[in-house]
Structure formats: structure tokens, C-alpha cells
Design brief:
The chain contains 15 helices and eight strands. It is α/β, with parallel strands linked by helices and about 375 residues long. It has two domains: about 170 residues, Rossmann fold; about 200 residues, Up-down Bundle (Dehydroquinate synthase-like, alpha domain), CATH 1.20.1090.10. The longest helix is centred in the middle third of the chain and has 23 residues. Bound molecules: 5,6-dihydroxy-NADP and zinc ion.
């Protein structure tokens, strides 16, 4: 196992009715900006529950943070917050709203051009942020308990990530009952996103981190067992609770401790969203099977372990078992009605591999993956195999 440090300051309130606890943790006398998305929270009662819990607080709203939140929209919130001297932000929504609020929180006190935080990778050097909390409405990204954020820029078709220790939510409320109104497509997205978060931190090479491996396999098995139940019936509270906690655990920092991590699937996937607007999780379902195939020598031992412990694959040559493990993964995505080929989402895909490679080279991203050997040539091969 590799050395590690670990600190996660986010307080979690999990379960039915927990939104009512908001006033216990929201700073008294705060001037709050309540930030949310396209309005689903008004249809499912979450908005009313939040106001009920925060009676007496001074609240202004910022609505309209879109899926794959954009710099253009978020800067409007930054201006509003600066004008109104906001001292606390409450994100009510999914990964997009929470990621958006992380950006708003550090952009408000930022002296320069906030886009530089993303483009010039200034996350680690940030010194100031407006504190924030979240009420999560869709299990998927883990943003509710991590310090990362992904923001898109419409004008330039970019989608970039940043992270800062200042960007952990102070608290997050996870009430699985809010999932009842989720469209099936979003439930499937959440399952696949969480699944891939585990894979990015697990499917690398062995370093003797037995506990991290088994936690990872436990989350994968839980997603395979519980995810389809929620996909069929979002009113199944028990399954929803298990899915929600699995998605949080998949990316709250525990799995990456003491192990190498990959993240190349995410980096390539972000470009597919930037170029074609494909849902984040679906880009991962397009890229990951090809990435596992192209990088299978690197990932051989873990692919065999994954096949055996997660899918029960014990028979056949190593080559056959690896292919079976990847095929099972794809079949799982298909069972959630998620297409795993780029051509199912756009007819304009022929130049995609070259475009992504050009973008990566221009940013100096020539060595991705756990062994830093996902080179531009490999990226090209992976993307072309995904057409
Ligand atoms: O905007 P509203 O009206 O709220 O509708 C949303 C949105 O249309 C809807 N929704 C959410 N909760 C609902 C609901 N509809 C009905 N009932 C509910 N309870 O679902 C749609 C999608 O929401 P979004 O927040 O975009 O989904 P998700 O949580 O999957 O977030 C995706 C974003 O997170 C980033 C992705 O790149 C993408 O931009 N990620 C963030 C990460 C992080 N911070 O650690 C890691 C991830 O890998 C990912 O990159
Ligand atoms: Zn993801």
C-alpha cells in the first residue's frame, strides 16, 4: 500500500426527513444564496422542505444552473452574490448544481479572472472561499462529499475540472426519498457514473491494498444488485438508500487512499460532453470498455480479479476471462438502456479521436493513466475503438 493522508470534513445527514436538520448546521445570521437547477426541486417538494427548515433566514435565490454547469451561467451567480454580500451558499440539486456552487464559492473572492482557476489549474493555490452546504437530489457524482468540480464553457466548448481543499461542502443532506421523481435516464446515469468512479480507482494494478480493493468490489456489487431495482422502481426506498450511499462512497476519497488511480476515462469522456453534449455518465460508458481493452496489459491482474470477484468468472484462459469481464460490464450498462458506442449518440464522430488528441496535446496532457502511459496514440486508439 502507498503512503497517504486523509481528511474529509463534510458532515453527512443521511435518511428520510433529514432536510429538516438544515438549520442545525447553516450558520446563524448567514446571508444565504440558495442555488438550484432547472426547477425539479419545485416539483418534488424539496424546495418547500428547504424553506420550511430555514425559516427566519435571509435567503436570495439563483436558479437555472444547467446540467454540465457553464461558466457563463455561474458568473451571473458570482455577480449576484458579490452585489448582495452573500456569506453562505446552499446548493440544492445534483452534481451540476453542487459543482457549480463550488466554482461560485471560490470565484466570488477571487481577484483575477475566475476561468483561470480551471484553465491554469489554480485550484490548489486558492486561499479564500464562501462556505457552502448541499442538499443532494441525485446520486451519481460524489460531489456532495468531495472537493472536485467540473465546469464547462459554452463559448469555447471546453469542460475542465478543478479541486481545492476549500471546496468540500460543510455538510450534505442525503435523503433517498428525493429520488422518487428522478427520470429513469438520470438513475441509469447515476449508477454508471458511480460504477466508473470505482473502476478508475480500482482497475489499475495491485499494490497490496486489500481493504481498498474489497471496499471497491463491495460498492460495485452493491451497484449491480441495487441499481437495477431503483431503475425499475424509484419508490423502492431501501434500494434507493443503498444506491445513494454507494455513489457517495464511490468518490469521497476513501477508495483512492494508498492506491494508484487512472481517470483517463473521465478525461476523454469530458471531451465528448464538451463536443457533443452527451450526458457525463454515457460518455464513460462509451469510453471505458475500449480503454480497458486497449490498456489490458497494464490492468491485467486487476481485470482478472475484477472478473472473478465481481462477476464470478473463473473459467478460461486469462485472455478469455478478461474479455468476459469487459463484456459483462458492457452488458450491465446495456441492461440500463445505456448505449456504449459514440455512433449511437452522434453521426458526426469521424474526426473525434483526432480532435481529442489535439486538445490533449495543446494542454500538455501526454501521459494519462495510472502508469502515465496513456499517450496520445493510445487515446486515439481508445476513442476510435469507441466509435
Ligand atoms: O436541473 P433540475 O431541474 O434539478 O434537473 C436535474 C437535471 O436535469 C435532474 N434532477 C436532479 N435531481 C432530480 C432531478 N429530476 C427529478 N428529480 C430529482 N430528484 O437531473 C438532471 C441531471 O442533473 P445533474 O446535476 O447534471 O446530474 P449529475 O449529478 O449526474 O451531475 C453531472 C455533472 O457532475 C460532473 C459531471 O461532469 C457533470 O457536469 N461530475 C462531477 C464530479 C465531482 N464533482 O466529483 C465527478 C463526476 O465524475 C462528474 O464529472
Ligand atoms: Zn464521473
Amino acid at each position: 500500500m502507498l503512503n497517504f493522508e486523509f481528511h474529509n470534513p463534510t458532515k453527512i445527514f443521511f435518511g428520510k426527513g433529514q432536510i429538516s436538520k438544515l438549520s442545525e448546521v447553516t450558520p446563524k445570521n448567514a446571508k444565504i444564496m440558495l442555488a438550484y437547477g432547472g426547477g425539479s426541486i419545485k416539483q418534488n417538494g424539496v424546495y418547500d422542505q428547504v424553506y420550511q427548515a430555514l425559516q427566519g433566514y435571509d435567503i436570495i435565490e439563483f436558479a437555472g444552473i444547467e446540467p454540465n454547469p457553464t461558466y457563463e451561467t455561474l458568473m451571473q451567480a458570482v455577480e449576484l452574490a458579490r452585489r448582495e454580500n452573500i456569506t453562505f451558499i446552499l446548493a440544492v440539486g445534483g452534481g451540476s448544481v453542487i459543482d457549480g456552487v463550488k466554482f461560485i464559492s471560490v470565484a466570488i473572492p477571487f481577484a483575477g479572472e475566475p476561468w483561470d482557476i480551471l484553465e491554469k489549474g489554480l485550484g490548489k493555490s486558492l486561499t479564500q472561499a464562501i462556505p457552502f452546504g448541499s442538499v443532494l437530489t441525485i446520486p451519481a457524482t460524489g460531489s456532495e462529499m468531495n472537493s472536485g468540480s467540473v465546469v464547462s464553457r459554452k463559448a469555447t466548448k471546453q469542460k475542465l475540472a478543478f479541486g481545492s481543499p476549500l471546496c468540500f461542502p460543510m455538510f450534505s443532506v442525503l435523503d433517498p426519498e428525493v429520488m422518487r421523481t428522478l427520470p429513469a435516464r438520470q438513475i441509469a446515469n447515476g449508477i454508471v457514473d458511480a460504477y466508473t468512479h470505482v473502476m478508475e480507482q480500482y482497475l489499475t494494478y495491485p499494490v497490496g491494498a486489500a481493504l481498498q480493493d474489497r471496499i471497491a468490489e463491495g460498492i460495485l456489487l452493491t451497484l449491480i444488485e441495487q441499481g437495477p431495482k431503483v431503475y425499475q422502481n424509484p419508490n423502492d426506498y431501501e434500494a434507493a438508500a443503498n444506491l445513494m450511499w454507494s455513489a457517495t462512497m464511490a468518490l469521497n476519497g476513501l477508495l483512492r487512499l494508498g492506491v494508484p488511480t487512472d481517470w483517463a476515462t473521465h478525461m476523454i469522456g469530458h471531451e465528448l460532453t464538451a463536443l457533443f453534449g452527451i450526458d457525463h455518465a454515457r460518455t464513460l460508458a462509451i469510453v471505458s470498455p475500449s480503454l480497458y481493452r486497449v490498456m489490458k496489459e497494464n490492468k491485467k491482474e486487476k481485470l482478472l480479479q475484477y472478473g472473478e470477484r465481481v462477476w464470478g468468472i473463473k473459467e478460461g484462459t486469462e485472455e478469455e476471462r478478461i474479455e468476459k469481464a469487459i463484456a459483462q460490464t458492457v452488458a450491465f450498462y446495456h441492461s440500463l438502456d445505456i448505449d456504449t458506442r459514440l455512433s449511437a449518440y452522434t453521426s458526426d464522430y469521424q474526426r473525434t479521436a483526432n480532435e481529442i488528441v489535439d486538445r490533449f496535446i495543446s494542454r500538455g496532457w501526454k501521459q494519462l493513466g495510472e502508469k502515465r502511459d496513456v499517450t496520445p496514440d493510445k487515446v486515439k486508439e481508445i476513442v476510435e475503438m469507441s466509435y
